[in-house]
User: Which sequence fits this backbone?
């Protein structure tokens, strides 16, 4: 059984979800709100030490037509930093519709739920079986 962490990267907040390769069910875990890049990576590092993931999944935003935009580049950079700083495999998952799924929900802390949707997409994709 391998643990998987997923991240919904944002400039102000990063949503985090957790799951494993046996149950294949994503659960919201945390919302990282650190003001600095170093602070964000310190919190992420603590989660990685605690959960020891085999892989980290990062949501890759795209326009509805599939074209990447500015946040796509930032998310790719974030995934590369996760890999480089923590020596953990990273996978990018199309997150085009994750926000739409939870947009009807109220409250600010939806980032962890968006990360859970991204992780569930990863689990549901047969290529990751």
Assistant:
């Amino acid at each position: 059984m391998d643990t998987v962490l997923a991240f919904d990267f944002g400039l102000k907040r990063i949503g985090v979800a957790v799951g494993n390769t046996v149950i294949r069910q994503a659960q919201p875990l945390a919302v990282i709100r650190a003001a600095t890049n170093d602070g964000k990576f310190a919190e992420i590092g603590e989660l990685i030490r605690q959960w020891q993931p085999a892989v980290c999944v990062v949501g890759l935003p795209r326009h509805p037509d599939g074209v990447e935009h500015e946040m796509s580049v930032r998310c790719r950079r974030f995934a590369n930093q996760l890999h480089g700083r923590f020596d953990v495999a990273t996978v990018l998952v199309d997150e085009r519709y994750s926000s739409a799924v939870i947009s009807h929900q109220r409250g600010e802390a939806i980032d962890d739920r968006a990360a859970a949707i991204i992780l569930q997409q990863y689990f549901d994709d047969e290529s990751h079986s």
